[in-house]
Design goal:
With 316 residues, this protein is an alpha/beta fold. Helices cover 29% and strands 29% of the residues. A seven-stranded mixed β-sheet has the order 1-5-4-3-2-6-7. Strand 10 and strand 11 form a beta hairpin.
Length: 316
């Protein structure tokens, strides 16, 4: 993934950059937290990367232009031909760069282009600031693997006035959703595969975690993520592979399942006289950065995983 088009001051890419991202749904009080963060920025020391998709991201972009903060606007569609007066002014003054990873064929924002735009921003930034991240949403998936993240909405108790807390009845914790309670554990010859959902009620994705005891103690965990359509395609691919492996037929070359969290490729090798299946999810973050996660299991164990995914789809 790389930048396809640029407009404006390209030297901003050489600055130390902070990427701002935010889910569409935001809690009460977030405007105050984001406003406080922006007030701490200065035109002399900061450069912020942001999109203009969620309402909060659009508000942040407008405020950055108003305050004269050097800004890199990252689009999830092809470069438009027209801009508003505030954007043209910022471009003329050299304090704005507009970039996009999309070519001329992407005229509208899609789930994939928005996801890839966020990942590109995070890979180019030295720091990531998140206004709010919806649990189980696409932003949470994109943030997997990044540790240079600051969350503005992290449950600060000082947001709620003490008097208000006294006067209002205690809030009841929401009941866990049906999907969030669903899980399976598959005991394999090499570790354990856990199947479960991350479900916020707004967006849901399925997670396959392969946990293997590490040599130095603790556990190594490889995680694959899928939405419902992607999981159905994974199931079809696994059924095909299971049939080929059972009959001794050659495994199809170039079999790939596409996913926002990274496309999944399959490979078969021999280990101790037994066929070993590897499912590898690879996501390019730009700048040479990769997220590569691999789940490995014996070919004879594949039916267990197929059955688990079938049950997950039935529950979903």
């Amino acid at each position: 993934m790389k930048i396809q088009s640029k407009l404006g001051n390209e030297t901003l890419l050489r600055h130390e950059k902070t990427a701002f991202l935010c889910s569409r749904k935001t809690p009460d009080g977030l405007e105050y937290l984001v406003g406080k963060w922006i007030l701490g920025l200065s035109p002399e020391h900061d450069c912020v990367m942001c999109g203009n998709q969620s309402p909060m991201e659009r508000a942040v972009f407008t405020t950055l232009l108003q305050r004269g903060i050097p800004t890199i606007l990252c689009l999830a569609e092809t470069m438009p031909s027209r801009w508003g007066d505030d954007v043209r002014t910022a471009l003329g003054e050299g304090r704005l760069l507009i970039v996009t990873h999309c070519d001329a064929s992407v005229h509208n924002v899609t789930a994939r282009s928005a996801f890839d735009r966020n990942v590109l921003m995070m890979s180019l930034a030295q720091k990531i600031v998140v206004g709010c991240c919806t649990k189980g949403g696409k932003l949470e998936r994109a943030l997997a693997g990044f540790d240079n993240v600051e969350y503005l909405d992290n449950g600060q108790p000082w947001l709620d006035m003490a008097e208000k807390a006294k006067s209002e009845p205690a809030r009841k914790e929401p009941k866990p959703s049906r999907l969030s309670q669903w899980s399976r554990a598959l005991k394999l010859k090499r570790g354990t595969v856990y199947l479960d959902f991350n479900d916020s009620g707004a967006e849901t994705y399925f997670k396959i975690t392969h946990s293997v005891k590490a040599a130095g103690g603790g556990y190594d965990r490889e995680k694959l993520f899928f939405d419902r359509k992607e999981l159905a395609e994974l199931l079809a691919a696994m059924r095909l592979l299971d049939g080929k492996l059972r009959s001794g037929e050659p495994v199809p070359q170039g079999l790939v399942v596409q996913s926002l969290s990274g496309d999944v490729a399959f490979g078969v090798s021999m280990e101790g006289g037994a066929a070993l299946l590897a499912m590898t999810q690879r996501k390019e973050y730009g700048g040479g950065k990769l997220r590569v996660q691999t789940v490995r299991l014996l070919a004879g164990e594949l039916p267990m995983l197929v059955k688990g995914v079938e049950e997950a789809l039935e529950a979903w």
